[in-house]
Design goal:
CATH class of the largest domain: Alpha Beta
Number of domains: 2
Helix content: 25-40%
Radius of gyration: 21 Å
Structural class: alpha/beta
CATH topology of the largest domain: Aspartate Aminotransferase, domain 2
Strand order of the largest sheet: 4-10-9-8-7-5-6
Largest sheet: 7 strands, mixed
Shape: globular
Strand content: 5-15%
CATH superfamily of the largest domain: Type I PLP-dependent aspartate aminotransferase-like (Major domain)
Oligomer: single chain
Length: 459
């Protein structure tokens, strides 16, 4: 099955790398440590890639969160930032940008998405509260579970396959949603757009609309995790013929109509190094969110952010709607995904947003799940070529992991085709010797989000 992208097909798109819709004006030197040094660094980091110094990484695909390049307009805005505690002009500029982006006129700034998650958990959740989602990501899950909530991920059945059999694998299962709401007392529904844990897969706008209508019938609030909503809206335009003539900015605004609130990390589709926002349509809950923001993050005009961060966010948020940029952005992910597939690795298809996802269960079948086969590939990417990626499997999600993914997250406006080709070459060399890879065991782990701080040793 093929999905049409404008006047061409996916087959045509993979014949070339998308052209960057920008010129590079500032560069940063990157260094490639030799193999002996890489081996030493892995031992010292206890085989946890989060603990490797960034200057020892050649290509960094660990995350797309806050790691992208700023535009000249963002750098210019930073220079005129107002650092006042209350009433800074930078905040009012961001407030206007959020309104233009989303239609929300009383938003709350936060330093990043997980700050909003903590506030949402405190307002909506309690011990034993049930939360439904198309699939929560790690920090949202941890924040919700920290107050005793019980999480149910109910994506559509196609999301559990790697095949190119559905254009919107990020969708929530509407039948399961209604069935659970009919039978259970549910506190909250969260729609993650795009679905990070499920392979960066988009949510169809029609699916969101239907989910919201179901939630309204049962008086259950629906909140959008909007950190990649620009990418998601571009996929809606390209994969749902109903919206092919819509502008992405209008699909974004339309999406925000079908929720009871939303939160966004500016470190993704805000195209910034730090920031985010929260908005709850219930005035009483939005006021409570402001009270908690002041207690935990800072005053309602800065929310833990400097004026410089606020200025960058105000510009980047609107830049993320540029359809030339989004064509390049999603095209980079597609290029990397399809090339990894050509090597022989199993990948999540169709290519989604922000990252290529390699599934290692077949290729590394000699490594038991309890020895984290996906983490084995992640470690080997650094050992072989100083490429840093991240495991999104049993190490991160324990027994809740439905795939043994390695996520190759591409920072925005940062790497070129030759960088991607280098990563592809490293992955190809590893595939040829894949049977020699070994598993790992944990020797230390914290109670929450263990992948950030865990220490491991080779089996």
């Amino acid at each position: 099955m093929r999905f049409r992208y404008g006047s061409s097909t996916l087959k045509f798109q993979v014949m070339r790398h998308p052209v960057e819709p920008f010129r590079i004006k500032t560069v940063e030197r990157i260094n490639l440590p030799d193999r002996e040094e890489r081996e030493r660094i892995l031992r010292e980091a206890k085989y946890n890639l989060f603990k490797i110094p960034s200057e020892k990484v050649f290509i960094d695909f660990l995350t797309d969160s806050g790691t992208g390049a700023l535009s000249q307009e963002q750098w210019g805005a930073i220079m005129v930032a107002d650092e006042a505690y209350a009433g800074p002009r930078s905040w009012f500029k961001l407030k206007d940008a959020i309104y233009e982006f989303s239609g929300f006129d009383d938003s709350i700034p936060v330093h990043q998405g997980r700050a909003a998650e903590k506030i949402i958990a405190s307002i909506y959740l309690y011990e034993g509260a049930k939360v439904l989602s198309n699939t929560l990501f790690d920090t949202t899950r941890a924040n919700f579970e920290s107050v005793g909530a019980i999480i149910y991920d109910i994506p559509i059945k196609e999301s559990y396959t790697l095949e190119e059999n559905h254009p919107f694998k990020g969708n929530i299962d509407l039948e399961k949603l209604e069935d659970i709401l009919r039978r259970e007392n549910v506190a909250l529904v969260v729609m993650v757009m795009t679905n990070n844990t499920g392979g960066g897969q988009p949510v169809d706008l029609d699916n969101l609309i239907s989910a919201y209508e179901i939630c309204k019938r049962y008086n259950v609030p629906l909140i959008i995790d909007a950190c990649r909503i620009s990418e998601n809206s571009y996929f809606v335009k390209k994969r749902n013929p109903k919206y092919s003539n819509w502008e992405v900015k209008d699909i974004i605004k339309e999406s925000f109509k079908y929720c009871d609130g939303a939160f966004m990390s500016a470190k993704k589709d805000g195209l910034s190094n730090m920031g985010g926002f929260l908005f709850l349509k219930d005035p009483e809950k939005n006021l409570r969110a402001k009270e908690l923001l002041i207690l935990w993050e800072g005053f309602i005009h800065y929310g833990g952010l400097s004026g410089r961060d606020i200025e960058s966010f105000a510009v980047g948020l609107l830049e993320s709607r540029d359809e030339r940029y989004l064509e390049y952005r999603t095209g980079q992910v597609e290029y990397l995904t399809r090339k990894l597939k050509e090597i022989g690795w199993d990948v999540m298809l169709p290519p989604g947003g922000h990252a290529a996802y390699v599934e290692v269960s077949r290729a590394l079948k000699h490594i038991p799940k309890e020895n984290f086969p996906a983490h084995s590939l992640a470690v080997e990417m650094y050992r072989e070529g100083a490429v840093r990626v991240v495991e999104v499997g049993s190490l991160m999600f324990k027994d809740k992991a439905k795939f043994e993914f390695v996520r190759f997250a591409i920072p925005r406006r940062t790497y070129t085709q030759s960088h991607l080709d280098y990563v592809i070459d490293v992955a190809a060399r590893i595939y040829e010797k894949r049977e020699s890879l070994r598993g790992y065991r944990i020797i230390y782990e914290p109670p929450y989000l263990r992948h950030f701080l865990a220490e491991l040793e080779m089996v």
